[in-house]
Write a structure and sequence with these properties.
Distance between the termini: 23 Å
Mean pLDDT: 96
Radius of gyration: 16 Å
CATH topology: Glutaredoxin
Structural class: alpha+beta
Low-confidence stretches: none
Number of domains: 1
Order of helices and strands: HHHHEHEHEEHHH
Strand order of the largest sheet: 2-1-3-4
Largest sheet: 4 strands, mixed
CATH superfamily: Glutaredoxin
Shape: globular
Number of strands: 4
Helix content: 40-55%
CATH class: Alpha Beta
Length: 201
């Protein structure tokens, strides 16, 4: 068993507790994480509004609902996140709504900067990209992971960076538009494909 997973689970949050913690920090003029800046606080505030909206509007597809209600193996969905992360704000509400549909799925969230050792076990192309969903079996062994973005969003960013050499505000706005139009469907599909591959559903 990965001891970094065990340590992270010991200081993990439920979805609602995570939301409350981020809100408390914003009210104190702070963001989550090791670094503090006006920009990170601004992003955190934007994400707070974004998540409030998504919790009310995001829908789990009928196909995904049906599959999730058939999950018969206990598992934990452990997510590395931070309040300032735009991708996390778009994806966490979807993961939450999915997990709520199965009594066998236990969602736990941890802050990336407080769990550096775990983050280093699940890098994306050598980077500490979040959110990162780690699916654990009933013995807390990692059996699959998803993130930080669904494939179409990953390609959108990669193509822009290849053409322009940077990830700037222009593409960040386009990415948020993509999430808005996708309505969480790509994230749902990719997580369910991963679960099918790992014979979890």
């Amino acid at each position: 068993m990965n001891t970094n997973i065990v340590k992270a689970l010991a200081k993990s949050y439920t979805y609602n507790a995570y939301r409350e913690k981020v809100s408390q920090l914003i009210n104190q003029g702070k963001s989550t994480g090791n670094s503090q800046s006006d920009d990170l606080l601004h992003y955190s505030e934007l994400n707070e509004t974004r998540m409030n909206r998504l919790e009310k509007t995001i829908k789990v597809t009928e196909e995904t609902q049906e599959k999730l209600t058939q999950v018969d193996k206990k598992q934990t969905w452990l997510v590395l996140s931070e309040g300032w992360c735009g991708d996390a704000a778009q994806i966490l509400p979807i993961i939450y709504k999915m997990a709520e549909l199965s009594e066998n799925i236990d969602l736990k969230i941890v802050f990336r900067d407080e769990n550096e050792a775990l983050m280093n076990d699940f890098l994306t192309n050598g980077g500490k990209a979040i959110p990162k969903l780690i699916i654990l079996d009933e013995d807390n062994n990692a059996i699959g992971d998803f993130g930080p973005r669904p494939e179409p969003a990953r390609k959108l960013i990669a193509d822009y960076k290849a053409a322009n050499g940077v990830v700037d505000e222009t593409i960040k706005v386009e990415l948020q538009k993509w999430y808005l139009h996708d309505k969480g469907v790509s994230t749902q599909n990719e997580i369910m494909q991963l679960m099918k591959k790992k014979e979890l559903v």
